[in-house]
Amino acid sequence: MVSINSIKRGVVIDHIKAGYGIKIYNYLGLDKAEFTVALIKNAPSNKKERKDIIKIENAIDIDFTVLGLIDPNITINIIEDEVIKKKIKLSTPNRVEDVIKCKNPRCVTSVEANIPHVFFLLDEEKGQYKCQYCDELHTFSEV
Amino acid sequence: MLKGRHLIEPMDFSIDELEEIFNLADEIIANPENFKDICNGKLLATLFYEPSTRTRFSFEAAMYRLGGKVIGFSEPNSSSVAKGESIADTIRTIGCYADIAVMRHPKEGAPKVASFYSNIPVINAGDGGHQHPTQTLTDLLTIRAIKGKLSNLTIGFCGDLKFGRTVHSLIKAMSRYENIKFILVSPEELKVPEYIKKEVLEKNNIEFEEIEKLEDSIQKLDILYMTRVQKERFFNEEDYIRLKDSYILDKEKMNNAKKDMIVLHPLPRVNEISYEVDEDPRACYFKQAQYGMYVRMALIAKLLGVC
Ligand SMILES: [Zn+2]
Predict the structure, then answer these.
(1) End-to-end CA distance of chain B
(2) Is B211 helix (H, G, I), strand (E, B) or coil?
(3) Which ipTM did the prediction report?
(4) Separation of CA A111 and ligand 1 centre (Å)
(5) What region holds the Aspartate carbamoyltransferase regulatory subunit C-terminal domain (chain A) (predicted)?
(6) Which pTM was predicted?
């Protein structure tokens, strides 16, 4: 049994907006994980009213860019020997490639298979991105 | 330097670069015979993934008048596209044969994809309802040629301003010039999209008004840009009946317009301009089609670097 509170070696994804934990859990495919994963919902937080936390007992390779896209306020703690070895603060990336697909059915990405799906940040506050091909606006935090 | 560049959206070129193209177009109009061989030995590929005879003819005529030749397809069914070849592969192959390519495609962003893989200049000749930059060049050259300037103008747009991409592009392009005012005439449900108002008009402090009836402001306009407004675009029948005549330009409305106002239309027209207006010297939409060919000649010459 691994304690909910501490892990030996792994990743703690902290300060997730309450309710978003499950989205990130699913996005990272943690439902299929064969190592220990804890999803904590509605934990008390100093920063926010409530927050979600994900604890992963494994040194998995996370695409931090993607998490920044979903919620830039998330913090990532890399744990080794039960201590925080590294804290990673996320930001909203200016350019996102091959993370999420364009939803516009009229977009060329719906027919051209082997091209990268690229988005550029348009409005940081709203988290709005623009498809580089069709200019359609997307807000990933809603995904 | 425009040699080797692509034209995917109107804002790809700076005002100075546009001026370069327009100056060359002026020279071509003045002395077309001086330019009849400049593209000798050059090949233009027209890749039309959906038919658009008017636009294709305009490009073909432009290339032939420069002494160049044209290859291409206008029916994707009869080409390798039907076998499922990607845009990236098509343009890389075409780049081995032709010197410059023009692409019309039903999907938004297709010419941009082509430009990423192409070693020859790519011109967007319309990608879905997204962009149509050579129409914008046409509109700008026409205004510049007839009004003698692209600044200090009040421009009215009338009709379907919501879905009219030529309208959006021209508003964007004209916003870069000095002292431009816009009067936007449309029914409530066909107003210019919010993002144009926010990102183009308000951001650049451009004066504009939105009205429903053309007759209310036609006397203020230097340019009237007409577009089609179809009955089925209205949400309610009453509005359509109340407003339908406001969106048809006729002699009576022209009587209230300035003596030197010009009327433009991207064509083809259906019924939004009465045929009686054609006789009016202020009706410039057929001239506009001609300027369209000249501006394409200048564009091709510049991108090929032969002028
Ligand atoms: Zn897109």
Answers:
(1) 11
(2) strand
(3) 0.86
(4) 11
(5) 95-143
(6) 0.86
